[in-house]
Amino acid sequence: MTVSTLASSVASPRKATAAILANTVLIVIALCFLLPLAWLVLASLDVKATYQTQIPEQLSLANFAAVFNPELTFLPLWNSLLLSGGAAVVTVLASVLAAYPLSRYTMRFNKPFMYGVLFGTCLPITAIMVPVYSLFVRLNLLDSIPATIFFMAATSLPMAIWMTKNFMDSVPVSLEEAAWVDGASAMNALRRIVVPLMRPGLSVVFIFVFIQAWGNFFVPFVLLLSPSKQPAAVSIYSFFGQYGAIAYGQLAAFSVLYSVPVILLYVLVSRGMGGSFTMSGAIKG
Amino acid sequence: MHRNAKLALSVLAATSMVALAGCTAAGDNADGDSQSLKIVYQKTDSFTALDELFTKIKPEFEAANPGVTVELEPIQANDDDYSTKLALSQKSAETAPDVFYEDTFRLRSDIDAGYLLNIDDQLADWDEWGQFNEGAKAAGMGDDGSVYAVPLGTDTRGIWYSKPVFAAAGIELPWQPETWDDILTAARAIQASQPDVVPFNMYAGKGTGEGTVMQSFYELLYGTGDTLYNEDDQKWVVESQGFKDSLEFLQTLYTEKLALDPSEALDPNVWKKVFGELFPQGKLGGTVEGSYTPSFWQTGGSYEWPAYTEDMAVATFPTQNGEEPGGVSMSGGWTLAVGAKTANADLAFDFLALAVSQENALWYAINNSQIAVRTDVASEPTYLAANPFVADVTELVDVTHYRPATSDYSKISAEVQAATEAVITGQMSVDEAADAYDTAVEGIVGADKVTTK
Amino acid sequence: MLPLAPAVVLLAIFLLGPVIWSFYGSFTDAALTGSSAQDPQWVGLDNYLTLFKDPVFPLSLWLTFVFVVASAIVGQNFLGLGIALLINRASKVVSAVVGTAVVAAWVLPEIVAAFVAYAYFSEDGTLNQVLAAAGMTGPNWLYSFPMLSIILANAWRGTAFSMMVYRAALNDVPVEVTEAAMIDGADGIKRLTWITIPMIKNSIATNLMLITLQTLSVFTLIWVMTAGGPGNESTTLPIMAFQEAFKFGDIGYGTAIATVMLLIGAAFSLVYIRALRPEKV
Question: Do C230 and B5 count as a contact with CB atoms less than 8 A apart?
Fold first, then answer.
């Protein structure tokens, strides 16, 4: 808003050139970013797809039909939904509960905890996969969907607590104080007043965790072993390993099916509140 | 406060429930109540024979053992990923299989790890064990002399070549190279006469995994007089001339473009291209492959190609300069084993025994082009007539070698694969790659476990 | 504090636990197979001694460093900042299109993005088609330039994050400030370096921290595109740890590599947290 409004109001020739330049550069960038995706879309509709980007001789949904079966698509997608939905619910619940005292009370404990959380945000999750596997063996949790859900929730918790606390900080305390006067407990106030007010923020956290978990390949690849429990990320990988060199079109179709839910979710959330809002809530201290 | 404290508690409770769920499930397994068998094996788009076999005998077995459920868990992955997944599941009793499919070369280290059940007792009561040949009985044996696994079959490796391609290059058929140079001569003749044909491919690099060593490097190495492992001293051989010569041969094949382009050769799926496209289309002169090759081309195989019986031929891989015994082959094979953590050892063994019964072993040998290990299968006319190459590949048993069956083997093998990859991609010279291999081997097994002879 | 309990329990079991385990496990010879699978032994610093002698380790460290610097700090960060700055000057339609294009790569599940990048860079893939149209013969990127391929792929995939952070930050820069500078006659570059950048320096630091650590953990993208090859030419630390631990079954050794990664991550975060302290918490 800032510069662009100015630019149009001043509207000097120099500004106009700058605008043309900006537009051109951005269009080039957009093309570069879209080019790799063109293959995905075109190949999924092309029965004779290869790694080349080409306009299909004949648009066809045959690739989709070929992968549209319970074993290959429905069960893995259902598993993905369980894992991501589960992780997102657990994360949101735990982070709302945790954020409340952190946001509302000043305790000696707050500062080190928030440092710890910030530090946790930074852990390279890939690095802990080897020890996590050992830990899961010890605790007999290998191949358990609930345990995997809790692990995924734990890995996204630091970020989620951070975001939730920031959202909660922006809900004025005065509203709760009124409730306290009416005799409501702190927890009651949280549930009746704070949570409803920060619903948009919480849905951002929910979707943030959901999208991350949905795309996660490494965690279920190591922790879930039964073919019947594999989420789409893993089943798509074995599909690639086996048929990748042959059935490009089906691979692309499968990838599209698997990507659509998160794309829709993202569109939903950014329509609702503007894409940048997501990040400003997450990042601002 | 109360209601929301409950909320907090319920999240907490849910967390601890996971741990509990783990425990109770493990308990279920241990008390022997559950009459279910988990069978873990590999299934790929080009390897479905075992899946078909198990699917066929599952109802049979369940009918014979009322109250028992057989859970088939095919893992869809290549050899490397399959063994990773299998190993990951072996660690905990809850996920460990009751019966599983395993490559012979991994047996020793998994026996050491305590993953396989000692089946001496069960075998003693099983009258069909006597039908297995001595090699087969030894294949599943641990260092303690006990048997832990029963082989489904074995295999050998030789040169598979395309008669039309060789004929077009003016090479006299049947072709049988006597030395490595004979191979190069033939390959160069093909290159000169048919520029769009890959003359002679041999696997290399980490992509093809064990294929690189079993169907390429060891055929070379074991024909030089040197070996990988000194069985007498139980030490790994380093600094051998044979190792360098073998690398150099691969380097020659790849730099002269007699083999596939290195970028294609490093693709883990390159063998599918070899079987599915190159040979059937007459675009490949020859390669080193296993006795199971016909299983891909015969009716019901992944790359059906009826003309293979006419177009293809088998030759023995030669020794470096024609030294005795005049040829080299490698043997491996896969086995079935009972998991050490099984709650129903006898039941699991019964399932295993059914899978390798005369009838089933015969079916499997024919459909997966295995070399039979049961004498009563090997003499069956249908087995001998399964494809035109049964006699050829069975003869190779006379010149065959086995991989060192030690727990370190798979790491050493990975180093050999890395050395071949470094050489064919030009990242290292033959000497550098051999040196890097020596250093790596010493690092893996320790300086006291290597020898120069 | 009871409300904190679920979060604390989850973090303790699933994050702190593995971190502690990581230190412990790296001093044992735990393995997936062989006799030490049954009975892991305490081996002291053996794994670390092997690691420091392993020729792949310095290479892997270097490749990880190159990957992080080139794809995150240079690629994602500058590209993201650039787009965020330009988007304010561009027409509405263009900014919407760019925003969507950049975000699309980011929203895709990682494994799908990896396949797409694999197809794009493969020998007969889209990139070489474009080059061919321009009359050039492109190489087999994944084979000849594996690092460049994964760096570009990661920049492609991750720029959206930086872009969104900077768009949000720039929106918060008060109009009056830039306006005042403009009246003072400061040109674009000067305004950027003296006013805009300092005002969003907090966002820059946070963004750098997050993308550095995200990039440090990238596994799937590299695993699908090159699997660390050819040779070890694109074996970053996560790939090396995975191969040692799960492919070769050497859990103890893989854990030692993981511990090194954790320490690197911890060092980075300490630096960033320190840099942020005055304003934060």
Answer: no
8 Å CB contact between B450 and B236? yes
- What are the CA-CA distances from residue A92 to residues A20, A46, C13, C271 (Å)? 44, 41, 18, 29
Alpha carbon of B132: minimum distance to chain C alpha carbons (Å): 27
A82 at B interface, C-beta within 8 A: no
Residues 6+ apart with CB under 8 A from B13: none
Q: Quick one: DSSP state of residue C134?
A: T
Q: How far, in Å, CA of B365 to CA of B62, rounded? A: 24
Which residues does chain C have with pLDDT short of 50?
278-281
pLDDT at A244: 53
How far away is chain C from the Cα of A182, in angstroms, using its nearest Cα?
Answer: 22
Cα–Cα nearest to A171, from A95, A98, A104, A269: A104
Instruction: Tell me the chain C residues in contact with residue A218 when contact means C-beta distances shorter than 8 Å.
Output: 219-220
C279 contacts on A by Cβ (under 8 Å): 285
For residue C190, the enclosing domain spans 58-276
Which 9-38 residues of chain C touch chain A by CB within 8 A?
10-11, 13-15, 17-19, 21-22, 25, 30
User: A88 and A228: one domain?
Assistant: yes
Nearest CB partner across the interface for B8, out of C3, C35, C246 = C3
A245 has a pLDDT exceeding 60: no
Domain with CATH 3.40.190.10 in chain B: 34-151+334-369, 157-331+402-451
C37 with B410: Cβ contact below 8 A: no
Secondary structure of residue B160 in the 3-state scheme: strand
DSSP one-letter string for C27-85: TB---SSSHHHHS--B-TTHHHHHHHH-THHHHHHHHHHHHIIIIIIIIIHHHHHHHHH
Q: Which residues of B149-186 are buried (b: 16+ CB within 10 A; e: fewer)?
A: bbbbbbbbbbbbbbbbbbebbebeeebebeebebbbeb
Single out the residue of C177, C176, C160, C173 nearest to residue C202, CA to CA: C173
Same domain, A122 and A150: yes
**C250 vs B contacts (CB less than 8 Å):** 411
Least confident of B183-187, B330-334, B395-399, C275-279: C275-279
What are B237's strand-pairing partners?
B451
Q: Is the pLDDT of residue B197 over 70?
A: yes
* Inter-chain CB pairs, B–C, below 8 Å: 94
C-side interface with B, Cβ within 8 Å? Answer: 2-3, 5-6, 9-10, 13, 31-35, 37-38, 50, 53-55, 123, 140, 142-144, 227, 229-233, 246-250
Across the interface, whether the CB atoms of C130 and A35 are under 8 A apart is answered yes
User: Same structural domain for residues A89 and A188?
Assistant: yes
CATH class, domain B157-331+402-451, is alpha beta
Q: What are B287's strand-pairing partners?
A: B160, B201
The answer to whether A141 faces chain B, any CB pair under 8 Å, is yes
pLDDT of residue A279: 47
CB contact under 8 A, B4 and A144: no
User: Rounded to a whole number, what is the distance in angstroms from the first to the last CA of chain C?
Assistant: 19
User: For residue A31, what are the domain limits?
Assistant: 2-62
Q: What is the CATH number of the domain that holds A199?
A: 1.10.3720.10
Q: Does the structural domain B34-151+334-369 have CATH classification 3.40.190.10?
A: yes
Tell whether C85 is covered by a domain.
yes
The number of folded domains in chain A is: 2
> C77-104 pLDDT, tens per residue?
999 999 998 988 888 889 889 988 998 8
Mean confidence (pLDDT) of chain B: 88
For B422, which of C31, C32, C231 is closest by C-beta distance? C231
ipTM of the predicted structure? 0.84
Structure tokens at C223: 């695993």
Residues 44-63 of A with CB under 8 A from B: none
Last residue of a domain, one of A28, A47, A62: A62
pLDDT at A232: 92
